[in-house]
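Thread: hypoxanthine complex, take 2
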Amino acid sequence: MSTPHNSALQGQIAETVLLPGDPLRAKFIAETFLEDAEQFNTVRNMFGYTGNYKGKKISVMGTGMGCPSIGIYSYELISHFGVKNLVRIGSCGAFSEDLELFDIVIGMGSSTNSNFATQYHLPGTLSATCSYELLKKATHVAAKKGIPVHVGDIFSSDIFYFADPEEWKKWARMGILAVEMESYALYCNAKWLGADALTILTVSDHLATHKETTTEEREKSFTRMMEIALEL
Ligand code: HPA
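Output below.
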């Protein structure tokens, strides 16, 4: 049976799903990296595919932007379709002076200005974190392939265009490396439902230096991140 947002049938989605924000990126990944890829979802154009990579079944599906969107898709993937490993692959804005454009950041802890975790009625503040198992695997794969990565904390923001353009500096002061918009909901859903999740990001812009990448550059740089994600 399918869900309101995902028309896949049971068994059509692999236990490991790569999650780019952009559904057209999911299509590109399926066509470029997977063998015998078959599309399982077209609802709202949030394309999803399952294929084979080095003989192993793997899926890739878009999430859309922001915690509400990835919150829906990741919840259904885990609770309804039995997905065990969810690997977000995306871009981020760098806070840290140690980061350059195109560097790869693996998000260990995710801090947020989102209300996503209020649903759990926790008597405090939740630290949303990645799966240690997936993090360990990712750093191992990166080291083996000679791909440098920065492992650290990221900020999952509900806001892209801030009224106060300096606000990010307070998060940077806490050692947060970079900003994106989806990891917090993904990590919450994974913990709540008992799955493993990880976020792998490529730096697409820098908040301190105001350097930016072009769309074309982003498409190329993304291959190194994929090399790590596909091995998980
Ligand atoms: N803010 C939020 N998300 C992002 C950014 C940013 O500057 N860059 C890439 N994803």
